[in-house]
Amino acid sequence: MTDAEETSATDTAQAPSEDAGPAPIPLLAPREGVPEVTATAAGLAAVTAAFAAGAGPVAVDAERASGYRYGQRAYLVQLRRAGAGTALVDPVACPDLGSLGEALADTEWVLHAATQDLPCLRETGMVPARLFDTELAGRLAGFPRVGLGAMVENVLGYALEKGHSAADWSTRPLPEPWLRYAALDVELLTDLRDALEEELKNQGKLEWALQEFRAIAQAPPAPPRKDPWRRTSGMHKVRRRRQLAVVRELWQTRDQIARRRDVSPGKVLSDSAIVEAALGAPRTARALAALPGFGNRMGRRQLEQWHAAVERALTLPEEELPEQTKQPAGPPPPRAWADRDPAAAARLSTARAGVTAHAERLNLPQENLITPDTVRRLCWEPPADLSSEGVAEALRAYGARPWQIEQTLPLLTAALRAAPSA
User: Fold this and answer.
1) Beta-sheet strand order (sheet of 37-38)
2) What are the tens digits of pLDDT across the range 157-177?
3) Could you tell me which residue ranges the HRDC domain spans (predicted)?
């Protein structure tokens, strides 16, 4: 990018129009037809050679089997590049796609909602050095709807079929209509990228987007969640430590079974059943079987395991019971600020109002202008140095990108100075 292209956005940037126009053209099949699924080492070598010899960015997508299988692995990887056409690769038959990833190492990857697909692509050995995220580009450009179908329709004038997004992609063989859908997901992705790049350039936001894309590409893999069982739906009903122990034991037992069977944990035992068992604390297998979720056929097969898990929890020594609440890693919930620290509450109110107003002027979501967590942390514990450089340094430490600091520094600095720090 030249210096002349690195223009700044102004407060009068306008959101793209989605006024009703000509009816979108249905996109029913890929231009070159639906390719055969690559499922052999020889086929993968041919795809790798073809894509290495291609030109320009490569469109990449992945299909998972969320809700059907354990984990978030990829069950189909789709690629398209000028000069290479479209490829559909089976990462079950070809689990190591490292050679393909290396062949595209110097190529910009175009993905839609990149953070959703990058973890499962990383498991196959495919990791981009550079990327363009069309969903994030749409957010920064001010589009109110940023799903792939909506973006292709509003920007390019084509209607994509989206009927198989929630399918069980671990199915083998994959039905032809699913493969056609999968191929179409990358058919126009590079065209969409080019149109969005032009839109962002016209709005003076292209450099902002490039900074965001670099941050995504350079981000390390997310660490495993601590105490993932605490995310069980309905946990707000569970208030006692002994009940928490029941949730933990049942959750861990369910996870072991789901992993072993390679099925979604929710298909083994529902979250609602776990919570019911925690609240009821049944002491016998018969009492457990009478609870919702444990009387079905699958529940009965594992009834002894579920009962053993509940018994472990009910007989744990007091000192081994989980704490009622996990220590928060950051500030307390904002609703508690007014009582605990009125000055911090005043700072947060001023900062939020400023961020919201400026995001509206720039026609982008406020969470993309600056993350709400960053604003909360900054207002709860302001830096000792409230100069512009001191606040900027704090924002950098929280991971804010240069463009975000440039756009929010004046209003956040003013918010921190408007109320006493202590």
Assistant:
1) 37-38, 85-89, 74-82, 55-64, 108-111, 130-133
2) 999 977 788 899 999 999 999
3) 240-320
